[in-house]
What we know:
Layout: H1 5-9, H2 19-29, E1 33-35, E2 42-44, H3 46-65, E3 69-70, E4 76-78, H4 79-82, H5 86-92, E5 97-102, E6 105-113, H6 118-128, E7 137-146, E8 160-170, H7 173-195, E9 200-203, E10 215-222, E11 228-238, H8 240-245, E12 248-250, E13 256-258, E14 260-267, H9 269-278, E15 295-299, H10 305-308, H11 310-322, E16 327-329, H12 336-345, E17 350-354, H13 356-361, E18 363-368, E19 374-378, H14 382-407, E20 409-411, H15 415-423, E21 428-433, H16 437-447, E22 450-453, E23 473-478
Parallel strand pairs: 3-7, 15-16, 15-17, 20-21
Antiparallel strand pairs: 1-2, 4-6, 5-6, 7-8, 8-14, 9-10, 10-11, 11-14, 12-13, 17-18, 18-19, 21-23, 22-23
Amino acid sequence: MPKNTDSFVTEITPRSQDFSKWYLDVVRKAELADYSPVKGCMVIRPYGYAIWELIQQALDTRIKGTGHVNAYFPLFIPESLLNKEAEHVEGFAPQVAYVTHGGGEKLEEKLVVRPTSEAIIGTMYAKWIQSWRDLPILINQWANVVRWEKVTRPFLRTTEFLWQEGHTAHETAEEAEDETLKILALYKEMVATELAMPVIDGLKSESEKFAGALRTYSIEALMGDGRALQAGTSHNLGQNFAKAFDITFQARDKSVQHVWGTSWGMTTRLIGAAIMVHGDDSGLVLPPRIAPYQVVIVPIGKDNWRETVLPRAKEIQAALVAAGLRVTLDQRDERPGWKFSEWEMRGVPLRIEIGPKDIEKSQVFTARRDTREKAGVPMDGLAPRVIEILDDIQRNLFERAVRFREEHTQRVDSYDAFKAAMDGRPGFVIAPWCGSADCETQIKTDTQATIRNMPHAEVPAGRCVRCDSPAQAEAWFAKSY
Ligand SMILES: [Zn+2]
């Protein structure tokens, strides 16, 4: 056991020193995930999985609240089905894992381990949809998917990951576009409210869109190291998959038409995003709404604290739990200072300390993880006060992230300024773009920055930051994960 709190905290590489190493340290030491014997695949440990469950519940409630229902489709997709949509197969082929043998025999047809489920779900929709009366179909699936990755990082990029994938079918192009944008807005609100994470929502460029989609929209967040992270995508599939999988319906005018589709997803990557948006030198800083423990109670006292302090600490825990809070009481035989550091590293939003003197004064001592502010709080009315503090932490984390993004976003109108911006302080750079893939590629070669998305549909007045042709869009560029 370390002698003082400092030596414990220094087991984590400071964020300010090496962001990437800090991230891996936090993932391992906070017991969010661990490496597994399978290369590129992680084990999500209980503390990390509890965060995922909270994210999942918050998202699932919203998905159902907008009229969608959950279903489950097979993990395996016959290879021939994946091959039906040309762009789709081309986009995913390099990352696909196959099953070639089963039951000791070579399979007649290889099975793909789903990298995404458009192919299998589209095949089923072709069976289920006959008439306009069957539309819209609004189905979501919670599942795992596999995309073979060469370089992996826990939560951010792993060969297998967990996600939800929505797949919908509609009568008209307008309805499909409305659905795509409705989900984009839902995603934006969800991560802002639950993860305290501000995002830019907009359209992806052609080169960055989903393989087989008509249009892809994304939400993009800025991480603490100034790199952007795509946190969710919503695709308008047009009729591409409907044509490939022959999903037709008899329209109101009796003609036979192809449905209009959408698909959309968010993944366990959100956990990585939360770590990188809010964390600090001491470790994880969890927004209260996704914190497995919103409060940790640490009893303080001499050798007999189990007799003198613990009973009162248990009462406080019970009162807070009754008020709907997630609370842990640290009863281990470690020094309080050691416990403080550990729970700080694990990102618990609020610590409550209680010792014999506090009991005499009928109060507790609170310490916020976000601001490290400390305050005495009377035991009388403690639960409502704790709820207030947690709400304030949630709000503060969001505002802090917005400020960070504002400080790391700049608008440029010359290529020299663009390159200088990407060279210096990282973050978002907003610039007019002509819409050509050539410029996009050259910018990436010169600066490593990609177009994260284009938040506004209007064509801006300026000229392309690279080639000086009339601009087609105002693009948000950044180096990204
Ligand atoms: Zn250009």
